[in-house]
Amino acid sequence: MADFRTVTPSFSVAPQLGLEDIDRAADQGFKTILCNRPDNEDIRQPTIAELSERAETHGLTFLALPFAGAPALEIADQQGALIAHADAPVLAYCRSGTRSITAWALSQRGTGMREEILQQAWEAGYDLRGIAAAL
After folding, report:
1. Is the bond leading into 38 cis (omega within 30 degrees of zero)?
2. What is the pLDDT of residues 62-76, one digit of tens each?
3. Spatial separation of the C-alpha atoms in residues 92 and 130, rounded to whole Å
4. N or C end of the chain: smaller count of CB under 10 Å?
5. First-to-last CA distance in the chain?
6. Residue 28 and residue 12 in contact, taking contact as beta carbons nearer than 8 Å
7. Rounded to two decimals, what is the model's pTM?
8. How do residues 89-102 score in pLDDT, each as one tens digit?
C-alpha cells in the first residue's frame, strides 16, 4: 500500500500506486491522479492504462505526464499547469514520489516562496535542498 504524503491541502505525492491505492485515494477524497512514472520501469508496476481505468471507475480524473530522471523545467511547467487546472486534491505518483514532488517544486520557482516550498517538501519526507537554487 502506497504512503500518501500531503504537501499542500490540494496536492499530495506517493510512490508507485497499485490498483487498491486508487480505491483508497477515491475513499480519501482525491479528485485527480497524476502519473509521473513511465510504463515498464519495473515489470511489477501496473500500467498507466490499468490505473487510469480503475480511476475512471471511481469518477477520478487520471492525468499522465510520465518522465524519467530529474524533471526538466519544461516538464515542471507542464506539471504545474496540470495541477493548476485539475480538480483538487491531486495525488501525483512516480516510483518513490521524488520525481513528482521535484516537478511540483520546480513549477513553483520564482514565486518567492523558496523556504516554504522546501519546508513543505521536508514535512512530506523529501529533502529538496539540492534544487533550492533553482527555486
Report:
1. no
2. 999 999 999 999 999
3. 21
4. N
5. 32
6. no
7. 0.96
8. 999 999 999 999 99
